[in-house]
Amino acid sequence: MLKETLIVAILFFMTSIDTILLIFSAIRLKRHPQPRFVRLLVFLTLCAAHPLYSFLADTFFRLPGLRLVSAVCIVFFAVRLAGEPPLEFRSAAVPKRTIGAIVGATLWLDALTSIDTSVLVSAASPSVWVTVVGNLAAMSLLVALGPRLYAYVTDTPWVQIGIGGFMSASAALQLRSEPLLGGWGAPVPLYAAAAVLFALTALYGWKRHLG
User: Fold this and answer.
1) How many structural domains compose the chain?
2) Three-point CA angle 189, 193, 194, nearest 5°
3) Other C-beta atoms within 10 Å of 203: how many?
4) Structural domain harbouring 71
5) CB of 87 within 8 A of CB of 9?
6) Rounded to an integer, what distance in angstroms lies between the CA atom of residue 34 and that of residue 29?
7) Cβ–Cβ contacts within 10 Å for residue 159, how many?
8) Which of 21, 16, 19, 34 has the alpha carbon at shortest distance from 151?
9) Which of 122, 124, 175, 190 makes an SS bond possible with 57, Cβ 3.0 to 4.6 Å?
10) CA 64, CA 211: separation in Å to the nearest integer?
11) One digit per residue, pLDDT tens: the chain, 211 residues?
12) Burial letters 30-49, b for 16+ CB under 10 A, else e
């Protein structure tokens, strides 16, 4: 049981790094007046949402069109992350984020980026308790390290641009199981689309940072 829990925790952690970056970017963590409260709220929300998404993976996440919608939204937020300016160049206005808005953004972005994660965890986890405990361990580590990782990414333009491009590319690759695409879901078209999205996202981020 310990081995399975460790595997699930590693799966959750490795596949949720992009999720935590997108969430902190969407809620503007650096500009929030209560960052510790936000981190706690994100942690509690992810602990509740991740196991639920895993239980729904075999049904809801296989609906036609869901991966396509998810990919489009991920590309949007990835481009936004790639072009996010350093803290000193941002507006001085403090973002107004209510509890409902933070929870909603966390749930929404977690759902968008967790389709493949949920399918993997659903297959690897032998029980509900393994999923819950593995998720709790992974989310604790992610939320603890997430702010420092997010600060490093957004203060290092080339890393920020690269991660944004990688997220855009991975959004295209998750369409390999999308039934609505038919033949376009073959490896060659998807890898070509991933390369184009990476280049466009990186170009946008480069232009935003260097003018």
Assistant:
1) 1
2) 115
3) 13
4) 2-210
5) no
6) 9
7) 13
8) 21
9) 122
10) 40
11) 677 788 888 877 887 888 888 888 878 766 666 778 888 888 888 888 877 776 776 566 667 777 788 888 888 888 888 887 664 444 444 455 678 888 888 888 888 777 767 666 766 677 778 878 888 888 888 888 888 888 888 788 888 899 889 989 988 887 877 777 776 667 788 899 999 999 999 999 998 877 6
12) bebeeeeebbebbbebbbeb
Q: Report the chain's C-alpha Rg in angstroms.
A: 17
What would the two tokens of residue 18 be?
């992009």
Q: Which of 22, 1, 14, 33 is nearest to 163 (CA)?
A: 22
Supply the pTM of this predicted model: 0.72
User: At which residue do the structure tokens 């890393």 appear?
Assistant: 159
Supply the pLDDT for residue 64.
79
Instruction: Print the SS3 string covering the chain.
Output: CHHHHHHHHHHHHHHHHHHHHHHHHHCCHHHCCCHHHHHHHHHHHHHHHHHHHHHCCCCHHHCCCHHHHHHHHHHHHHHHHHCCCCHHHCCCCCCCCCHHHHHHHHHHHHHHHCHHHHHHHHHHCCCHHHHHHHHHHHHHHHHHHHHHHHHHHHHCHHHHHHHHHHHHHHHHHHHHHCHHHHHHHCHHHHHHHHHHHHHHHHHHHHHHHHC
